Amino acid sequence: MTFRQIEPCDDTAIAELIRHNLRVYRLDIPGTAYFDENLYHLSDFYLADPEKRTYIILADDANRVIGGVGIAGFDGFDDCAELQKLYLDDSYKGKGLGYELMKQAEAAAAARGYKRIYLETHDNLSVAIHLYKKCGFAEIESPASIVHSTMNRFFLKEL
Fold it and tell me: Angle, to 10 degrees, between the axis of helix 126-134 and the axis of helix 97-111?
């Protein structure tokens, strides 16, 4: 397995992986990433400003996209990145790869000078919430501005 920067050829695979996961957890509703305008063009967004954002693809030995995670600046807190779109293929869950994606995201955020990472999630994603807590994220109140209006849990971690 390899971690690498997103490429335009990954856009459809990661979008479908994200949409599948959101359907499974009944979050294929407005106010989630399911309806993000740029979901099928994530590489455009992340590659446009690599000094502030990145999307890391996890690929299997055949270079098939099996997961990913992004970071980008978040204006709600000083020197803060937002953890974005952390998803894994169902067949690879429970193998510690979520923790590995988190390590990659944290390292990428720190390398870009961020001092903390914010994320928003939903009660339906209890396994993800468990991951965030195990990785040292603390639950916080909803910040003034959130990206996905359906999300109802918010976390922050100092790097």
Answer: 60
Task: List the CATH number of the domain containing 9.
Answer: 3.40.630.30
Could you identify the residue written with the tokens 């937002």? 82
- Kindly report the backbone phi and psi dihedral angles of residue 65, in degrees, each rounded to the nearest multiple of 5, phi listed first: -70, 120
Work out the pLDDT band at 30, boundaries 50, 70, 90. Answer: confident
- pTM score, whole prediction: 0.92
Q: What is the pLDDT of residues 95-109, one digit of tens each?
A: 999 999 999 999 999
Cα–Cα distance between 66 and 58 in angstroms, integer? 6
DSSP 110-144: HHTT-SEEEEEE-TT-HHHHHHHHHTT-EEEPPPS
Tokens 């903390």, residue located: 116
Say which amino acid occupies 153. Answer: R
3-state secondary structure at position 48? helix
Which range of residues forms the domain containing residue 29?
Answer: 2-158
Q: How far is CA 153 from CA 9, 54, 72, 87, 144, in A?
A: 32, 23, 19, 17, 13
DSSP state of 158: E
| Distance (Å, whole) CA 27 – CA 84 | 15
Number of domains in the chain: 1
Query: Minimal CA–CA distance to 58: which of 134, 125, 2?
Result: 2
